[in-house]
Specification:
Layout lengths: L45 H12 L37 H10 L6 E4 L2 E3 L3 H8 L7 H26 L8 E4 L11 H6 L6 E2 L2 E3 L14 E3 L6 E9 L3 H12 L4 E11 L31
Parallel strand pairs: 1-8, 2-8, 3-4, 3-7, 7-8
Antiparallel strand pairs: 5-6
Helix pairs in contact: 1-4
Bound molecules: zinc ion (ZN) (2 copies).
One zinc ion binds next to helix 2.
Length: 298
């Protein structure tokens, strides 16, 4: 179950990382904006975090750069959904994203950016499960996932925000709540909160009956967010129903823009061992210097 390469034994889950400003540099102290964390923190340096990304990079696959389709049109050449970048059987959107569009066009996230694919049976999918499960592998999985997301947000936050029509950056962060309310902070928020100083939107799961994988505007509830620009984070996208229901709740609360970043876009059907061809590290290698909506320097 362990990664190949350098040992992670020396890395602890509570090791601090450098300050990260999930907003443009001009956002510091701006009213209504996000501010960069203050004070020095002890622990891993950015080069060390980048090392942790390199450690897992060879086992990751990710959507290649390309903004095509964010405004409509056909699917890309390899049959990836233009919304979630998952398998789309040659259509513009996968079945679920098409359904969401038909049900709730205009209420969904402005952009969805998976950091990587969580290929069924692969190490990234395993870590996304391990980090929030009890067990000895949880801490190492958490350290790797946190490094991956922090470095991604440092390097590609501007691409994501530009693609979402919020070039000035987010005013709020949010994490998609777990469907079944559980006590305590969401594991992803607990992982990131010490290192992201942007304000967190109040977004909670409502005590409504569990409706499985359906898009459900009543599933989540957010405190008023008039005119907000929200960077919405989630660990895994399977059907997208949770993340898109959360985006709907944020919009209902007044958010003007919602950009969704997903650590792993699930690929592979339950009960089917082999993932769809074309989504593995060999076909779509993860490249830290680019992202699905990469806009390049400037
Ligand atoms: Zn899709
Ligand atoms: Zn980018």
């Amino acid at each position: 179950m362990s990664e190949q390469g350098p040992s992670l034994a020396a890395v602890t889950a509570d090791t601090a990382v450098p300050s990260l400003a999930p907003v443009p540099p001009g956002g510091r102290g701006r009213p209504g904006g996000c501010s960069a964390p203050g004070g020095a923190s002890r622990g891993l340096s950015w080069p060390e975090l980048e090392g942790l990304v390199r450690l897992q990079a060879a086992s990751l696959s990710a959507p290649p750069a390309g903004r095509a389709g964010l405004t409509g049109g056909g699917s890309d050449a390899r049959g990836r959904c233009l919304v979630c970048r998952g398998p789309s059987d040659g259509r513009a959107r996968c079945f679920q994203c098409e359904l969401h569009e038909q049900c709730a066009a205009g209420s969904l996230a402005d952009v969805v950016v998976p950091v990587a694919y969580a290929v069924k049976g692969g190490s990234h999918a395993r870590r996304l499960w391990q980090y929030k499960s009890p067990g000895p592998a949880a801490a190492a999985a958490a350290v790797l996932l946190r490094a991956l997301l922090l470095v991604f947000l440092r390097d590609h936050r501007a691409c994501v925000c530009r693609a979402a029509g919020m070039p000035a950056g987010p005013t709020h962060l949010a994490v998609v709540p777990t469907a079944r309310s559980r006590p305590g902070q969401h594991p992803l928020r607990a992982l990131l909160a010490p290192y992201l100083s942007c304000r967190w939107a109040h977004l909670v799961a409502r005590p409504v009956p569990w409706r499985g994988r359906d898009l459900d505007p009543a599933r989540f509830e957010a405190a008023p967010l008039p005119g907000a620009r929200v960077l919405l984070l989630d660990d895994t996208w399977t059907t997208g129903a949770s993340a898109q229901s959360a985006a709907m709740a944020l919009r209902r609360a007044g958010a003007r823009r919602v950009a969704t970043v997903i650590l792993g876009r699930h690929v592979g059907r339950a009960g089917v061992t082999a993932p769809p061809a074309g989504f593995g590290p060999r076909e779509l290698p993860f490249q830290p210097g680019t992202c699905a909506v990469h806009a390049g320097p400037g």
